[in-house]
Design a protein that fits this description.
single chain; Thrombin, subunit H; 4-stranded antiparallel beta sheet; Chitinase A, domain 3; disordered C terminus; 8 strands; mainly beta
Length: about 170
Amino acid sequence: MKITPQCVVALTWTLKDTLGEVLDELDEPVEFLLGGADLLAKIEEALQGRQAGDAIDLHLEPEDAFGDFDEMRLFLEPRALFPVGIEEGMTFDGTALPAGVGGQVPREGFYTVSEMYPEHVVLDGNHPLAGIAIRLSLKVESVREASLQEIASGTMGTGFFRLEAEPPGNDTLH
């Protein structure tokens, strides 16, 4: 079966920066819904017409991947507002930020603790890969028709490198 919009594709990949450093590797296939919210537009475009067994190498500039780094998405907040075990790299859902966090911090999205000082922490609302051009080697493991329920939901539940808030100590990118 060839890949078309509204189908489910199982992918494996290796993600590298432009210097060749591996940023992420997925050895076990993960399913994504094409035509939904799971994949970046340039990846969906490159997958069209492909089939199981195909390999694709992509170079994505920041504007086609995770956006440019935006300094306006950095926020300095009092350290005392956060849990005692807070560490750099922890992520917080914007809707679950501790009480007292400044009103200028938007509540949508996720925030990573990027720096810590004795009295303050820096919350970064940028995606961890913002501002980075990436090289992505994809392999199409399988393709199938999406069910009506999958199409209606618009996702297989896995966004392409969507940052998800995890329990303390886990800084998962996918």
